[in-house]
Amino acid sequence: MKNSVLALIDCNNFFVSCERLFRPGLEGKPVVVLSSNDGCVISRSNEAKKLGVPMGAPVFKHRQLFKDHGIIQFSANFELYGDISERITTLLTSITPHIEVYSVDESFLDLSELEISDYTAWGKMVRTSVLKNIGVPVSIGIATSKTLTKLGADRAKKESELQGVLDLTASPSQQTDLYLARTPVNDIWGVGWKLTPKLRAEGVHTALDLRQFSAKRASQLMGVHGRQLVAELNGITCHPLEKFHKPQVMIMRGRQFGADTGEAHIIESAIASLTARAAVALRREQQLARSATVILATNRHKPGYRRLSKSVTFLTPTASAGTICSGLVQAVGEIINPHEQYHKADVILHDLIPISSLQTDVFGQVSSSGRDREEALLKAVDALNVKFGKGHLFYAAERLSDAWRPRYHLGSPRYTSSWAELPVAHIK
């Protein structure tokens, strides 16, 4: 496979950077963003990292640390983060349409068709453009494989002398080896906590060790994935840019409750809301679900942890939140114990098929005309919610109770997506 030149644009401490956009006074101060119910740390500023705040740190275990060092906390504001992410993607797409949005804060770009004589200078230009137009600092890795671009962006983020950009296509082999030697094997993209002990047992402790590792032995240890890892670290492209969105094989939405509960109407409201969100994503994917599963779990940090699940199958594949919710609420009624306190709920839509694949059956149980009416209704609902705002139209069951909703006591305004929460400028 012919190698391309790829770049990874990786936003630095993305959630924290979004919070700082409208509060410049937070620059230089330790800041963390917390998960649902303000339970654990999901984003840290560099200052918070230096104070020893680990990723995923439970807040209740570090309250004294936060207090002693004046660490500023924010509840996650995903609506804000998603909007800023879309703006960055729009800017990057204006540079090249050959882009793969890998996550909310990372995008791969194919630079092969661009006339670039100096990739480092190009990277610094892009970095300046994103910072000037969006306000978010980024790190950029440039290489001939995705794994090397990830490694390059990571080194560019950690080594200040690189000024946020590392081009591994032009680096002499000895210089590239130096960066690989500085990268622990567990920091390599595609090497998780399960693979790390296996590799260390083979004497592989850094990215350089893995680059020089026998491809045959890597394949024996990790299958095709291992052989590809070695190849990618040697600059050989095994994972080309995914220019087209792959349909999801399942769609899942879940939430921890704001307070543990065993009340049926509160749990029903949670299931209805999660189902509605999953169904919107399903329709966006132009797919239908044959099956759905609901999962209820008690608090795993308390005695008697239990996890219950129940699946339903639909005679006619559907993308209707009402149809799916009706089945899941009935399923919940069969497994719920009113004497237990539930902490979390998940809704999973699976066994998905494209809308275009729906076929009638010989017994006439799948009605094409009924399906057409349902599709027209759902399109109208989605269009109205786009025009007038998310959640403008909703199912009544979604409003049975708000007691299940996660707590966001430290949330910031939705500065860019809510008219009522737009920032106000005062002119003196």
Comma- or semicolon-separated keywords:
428 residues, alpha+beta, DNA polymerase, domain 1, 4-stranded antiparallel β-sheet
Strand percentage lies at: 15-25%
Briefly, what CATH class of one domain? Alpha Beta
Helicity level = 25-40%
Indicate the low-confidence ranges by residue numbers: none
Tally of separate helices: 14
Overview of this protein structure:
With 428 residues, the chain is an alpha+beta fold. Among the domains are: 6-10 and 100-233, DNA polymerase, domain 1; 251-399, Dna Ligase, domain 1, CATH 3.30.1490.100. The protein has helices at residues 14-21, 46-50, 63-69, 78-95, 119-133, 146-158, 173-181, 195-201, 207-211, 215-222, 224-233, 264-284, 321-335, 368-388; strands at 6-11, 31-34, 41-44, 72-75, 99-103, 106-110, 138-143, 165-167, 251-261, 287-297, 307-318, 342-354. It has a five-stranded mixed sheet. A four-stranded antiparallel sheet has the order 9-12-10-11, covered by helices on one side. The protein has a three-stranded mixed sheet with strand order 3-2-4. Helix 10 (215-222) crosses helix 11 (224-233).
